[in-house]
Amino acid sequence: MSEGEGTTFMQWRERAQSEVRHDRPKLRALLISAAAVVVVGIVVGAVVLLLS
């Protein structure tokens, strides 16, 4: 992904944090859940690669 293309991860993270600050508990729970799913996916993927 080139730098001028779409939003960068840092911009997305800043926007997500500012939305959370504006008192959106559902969004915060969704972001935490999404982050947990990503971490679990990475861990499971790493374990599968190590065992194969």
Provide an overview of this structure.
By secondary structure, the protein is mainly alpha-helical. The chain is 77% helix and 0% strand. The chain is built from 2 helices and no strands. The longest helix is centred in the C-terminal third of the chain and has 27 residues, at 25-51. The two termini are 30 Å apart. The mean pLDDT is 80.
The rounded Rg comes to 15 Å
Strand content: under 5%
Distance between the termini: 30 Å
Q: What would the principal axes of the Cα set say about the shape?
A: elongated
Q: How do the SSEs run, as a string of H and E?
A: HH
Number of helices: 2
Could you give a short description of this structure?
The protein is mainly alpha-helical. Helices cover 77% and strands 0% of the residues. The chain crosses the membrane at residues 29-51.
Features:
77% helix; elongated; mainly alpha; 52 residues
Topology:
Elements: H1 9-21, H2 25-51
